[in-house]
Amino acid sequence: MMSISKGEIMKALVYHGERNIAWEEHPDPKILQPTDVIVKIDTTTICGTDLHIWKGDMPEVEDGRILGHEGVGTIIEVGEGVKNWKVGDRAILSCVSACGECEYCKKGLTSHCMNPEGAKGLGWIFGYMIDGTQAEKVRVPFADTSLYRIPDGVSDEQGCMVSDILPTGYEIGIRDGGVKEGDTIAVIGAGPVGLAAMMTSALHGAKRVIAIDFDDNRLENAKAKFGATHSVNAGDEDWFEQVMALTEGGLGVDVACEAVGVPVTLQNCFKIVRPGGQVANIGVHGAPVEIAMNKYWIQNIRMSMGLVNAVEGERLLQGITDGKFKAENLVTHHFDMNDMMDAYETFRNAKETKAMKVIITQK
Ligand SMILES: [Zn+2]
Ligand SMILES: [Zn+2]
What we know:
Rossmann fold, EC 1.1.1.-
């Protein structure tokens, strides 16, 4: 029997099929390609996508896969083809592994990177097609084009929000939504991703940010900590009139962001957007959505949607250092890495625990 000597074993959060994950021993990652680095994870977190995998919604994930696609860490080994990084450097890991050379990467559409590491045409492979970041160590492919330096004054906790949640809200909601200086925007859904869109709208100078949700606590939170200037409870009978009254000339919002992923919220975005405005869908949908094109075709409404490219990290980090928004406000809980299973439990029961982002630290 081959024995594995000490120093070659780490702890990791391993997926073993539907509703079966464990914090267990796992062989250390190794450099496989010259463009790889090995990172010791200092800080990581859990994403809603990890819960989808746990639930068995993504059966393509193999038994034995280490989950996680967000984190901050220290480089402990460098492949011979890596130019920009050395041992001891600290970095933010992007949720998208971008080869930097394919047609999609060159266009900034890294979410469709044709890299040979996993599913061709999908840039998100961490904790999905290859082992991820919820571990003591992780192999990072394409290190030169998939890591960010941590600017002075940015904490690990803030940096961790730049792996996935902030780029998702910002790139798909605000940037691709075409938010401009002085705009009135609405974000339907005041969960973590909706809040990320609200807070990063400051980068584009949105004048009014209307948070729409069913939960008054979430709405208050959106106004207190995430840059919403107004809120409307979607359960109010006159919610629509309330929103329209907040817009210029009562014509509707310039940009309506959908951050839930169910049909009615996307349909409501079309209701509240003004002629010439834009609907930006951030939510992950599980069913077809009927849009009343017979009503809307004449309105010159644009619509955008997509998977995060995570190419705006520098800009988001600048926003953090400039004090435009407080990324750390997304964090609700802290755990030691050895309490990974507790972190999952807390995140999974977000309704009761009010968890948004849980920060997991390796000492
Ligand atoms: Zn994620
Ligand atoms: Zn690529």
